[in-house]
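Customer escalation, tier 2.

The customer says the design service returned an amino acid string that "doesn't look like it belongs to this structure." They asked us to rerun it and document both sides in this ticket. The original structure tokens are below, unchanged.
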């Protein structure tokens, strides 16, 4: 089959790899003109994603670190609550570039070597893999058992691509969902908090800080706000990283803070 996937982020790439490994030709249409890096800081890899990598990943390099569970600490670094949960911690960039390497062989600081050719599956070759950046999906049409995706490329030229299946993996403002449902996506409203994200290089983190946070998914609860910390493998670019800073404040309070 020929598979079209709109959206080249993590969900689109996992679907693309699955189809491609079972012998189907896959084309990803991604609206961004550049690789999708720095979309988020830290990210937890739950069991389904771990099982996906166990089955499809061809790299021997680590993409995540084991996490013993979630802990809550106070301002004196004392553990006030602990939840033993089996999970692994990674970063958005690490997962994205690992998936790109597995799909279309993109090399990066995370995966600097070219992947080996894929072996045949039950005597049949693996499908083709094409990642087309700068291709903004504009519409679709279904006729005679075929689906046609229309797009606009980075030069502003219109084009189309036909296939057997089209998958919409284009996020919260999905154009595929909008066209299929026949109305606009739900309006997103301000929920009352702001999410701040940051990264800290390993060389800038003290040994005490590393000992507090390493191996855990850590919450520091403050008045009307909290910090979330995780670590990333130092074998990857930038080393140890802090993660999300979630500030639960009203917009008026934030304006005062940011003056």
């Amino acid at each position: 089959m020929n598979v079209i996937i709109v959206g080249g982020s993590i969900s689109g790439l996992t679907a693309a790899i699955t189809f491609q490994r079972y012998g189907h030709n896959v084309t990803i249409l991604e609206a961004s003109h550049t690789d999708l890096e720095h979309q988020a800081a830290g990210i937890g890899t739950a069991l389904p994603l771990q099982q996906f990598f166990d089955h499809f990943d061809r790299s021997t390099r680590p993409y995540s670190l084991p996490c013993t569970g979630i802990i809550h600490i106070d301002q004196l670094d004392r553990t006030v609550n602990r939840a033993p949960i089996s999970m692994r911690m990674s970063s958005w960039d690490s997962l994205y570039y690992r998936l790109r390497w597995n799909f279309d062989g993109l090399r990066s600081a995370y995966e600097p070597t070219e992947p080996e050719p894929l072996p045949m599956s039950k005597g049949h070759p693996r499908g083709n893999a094409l990642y087309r950046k700068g291709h903004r999906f504009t519409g679709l049409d279904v006729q005679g058992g075929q689906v046609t995706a229309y797009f606009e490329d980075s030069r502003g030229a219109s084009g189309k691509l036909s296939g057997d299946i089209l998958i919409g993996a284009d996020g919260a403002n999905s154009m595929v969902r909008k066209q299929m449902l026949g109305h606009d996506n739900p309006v997103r409203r301000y929920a009352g908090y702001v999410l701040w994200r940051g990264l800290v290089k390993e060389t800038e983190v003290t040994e005490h800080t590393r000992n507090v946070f390493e191996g855990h998914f850590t919450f520091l609860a403050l008045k009307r706000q909290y910090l979330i910390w995780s670590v990333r493998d130092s074998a990857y670019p930038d080393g140890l990283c802090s993660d999300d800073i979630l500030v639960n404040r009203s917009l008026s309070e934030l304006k005062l803070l940011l003056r």
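Tier 2 assessment: The sequence is consistent with the input. Helices lie at 10-21, 47-56, 92-104, 175-181, 207-213, 251-257. Confidence is low (pLDDT under 50) at residues 233-259. Sent an explanation to the customer and offered a walkthrough call.
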